[in-house]
Specification:
By secondary structure, the chain is mainly α. 70% of the residues lie in helices and 2% in strands. 41% of the residues are buried.
């Protein structure tokens, strides 16, 4: 990728972040605080997704023109659709069922446009022979895409969290990706870093456009990298990379369903909310990101230990939930003198 294209993409991200409020006002994507879940200090534009994903789409189209590789066109189309879906949800809430259906359609179209995104088999580090998906390849891959979309969307509740997660995942992909993906990955990393600075200062939020766009951006690249470099990147390693937000999403959806609520309803029981009950957000952010990064780093260094790292990660995750639960009980039960 010519350096000038990367520079233009980076400047575009910076421009959107710098002019976040007028852009958010023009697009009618502003998030106002309320007396419930939205406890931020002021009206905030939801343009973080635009700042990261639009330059990524442009770089993908530029690479499609320069290389002739069909994957770049398919990638750009999927990101555009995910971004538009998110913007529609930011402006006027889309029912969860409709959003799920549209997300599935986006995934299917992207996979049909470029089949190497689809998972044909699963290679685990602890099993000698691969497990072929057969006719289940397409639905399983779509499930992975939509599953990560929901996990990322549920994790997007505090500044810096989703951007930090995506930065970790994109950095990991850099280790395994073929050279023709470097332009996309470099553009994504630059966009994440710039937007992170504005997000942490409270000047903009990702919004649903950012959550949906980033989840599809990372997921599609991960699928492709796995398919072309499965000898080094096993399925259990990928599961480990995304383990914490996915498990947290499943816990929330199952817990809500058991209480007779919609699995997509809102609450303050996410892991990041739980961490905030006994530590500051700065420490909670570092704790959450460390719980994702450290096991992933260990698995990159020692791939055969990916399964063990996953078990230890789940144990620490469970301990954090139990600690918050017991601390809350201790606060609720009066001490007897």
């Amino acid at each position: 990728m010519p350096f000038v294209i990367f520079l233009i993409a980076t400047l575009a991200t910076l421009a959107v972040c710098w002019k976040a409020m007028p852009i958010g006002t023009a697009l009618k994507v502003l998030d106002a605080p309320d007396a419930g879940r939205k406890r931020h200090a002021r009206v905030t534009p939801l343009v973080g997704g635009l700042a990261i994903i639009m330059p990524l789409i442009l770089v993908s189209l530029a690479n499609a023109w320069m290389t002739g590789l069909p994957m770049f066109n398919a990638y750009a189309l999927v990101l555009t659709a995910a971004l538009l879906l998110g913007f529609r949800d930011d402006r006027r809430h889309i029912p969860a069922t409709l959003r799920l259906v549209v997300s599935v359609v986006i995934g299917v179209v992207g996979l049909k446009m470029f089949s190497p995104f689809e998972i044909q088999f699963l290679r685990f580090s602890f099993i000698d022979a691969p497990i072929f998906t057969g006719g289940w390849g397409l639905p399983f891959t779509v499930l992975c895409l939509v599953g990560l979309q929901n996990a990322v969307n549920m994790a997007d509740g505090k500044n810096g969290l989703v951007i930090g997660l995506c930065f970790i995942w994109t950095s990991i992909l850099m280790v395994y990706a073929p050279p023709h993906l470097y332009p996309l990955l470099a553009t994504l990393l630059a966009g994440l870093l710039i937007t992170l600075a504005f997000n942490l200062s409270g000047r903009l939020f990702l919004g649903d456009a950012g959550a949906y766009g980033l989840s599809f951006a990372v997921a599609m690249l991960t699928l492709y990298v796995y398919n072309v470099n499965f000898s080094a990147l096993s399925a259990d390693m990928i599961a480990l990379f995304f383990l914490v937000p996915v498990v947290d999403c499943l816990r929330l959806m199952i817990g809500r369903s058991l209480k007779g609520r919609s699995p997509f309803s809102a609450d303050r029981e996410h892991l990041h909310h739980i961490l905030l009950r006994f530590m500051s957000w700065e420490k909670a952010l570092v704790t959450y990101l460390a719980l994702v990064f450290l096991p992933s780093f260990m698995a990159i260094w020692m791939p055969d230990l990916a399964l063990l790292c996953g078990v230890l990660t789940l144990a620490i995750y469970t301990m954090l939930l139990a600690t918050a639960h017991f601390l809350q009980l201790d606060q609720e039960v009066p001490h007897r003198g």
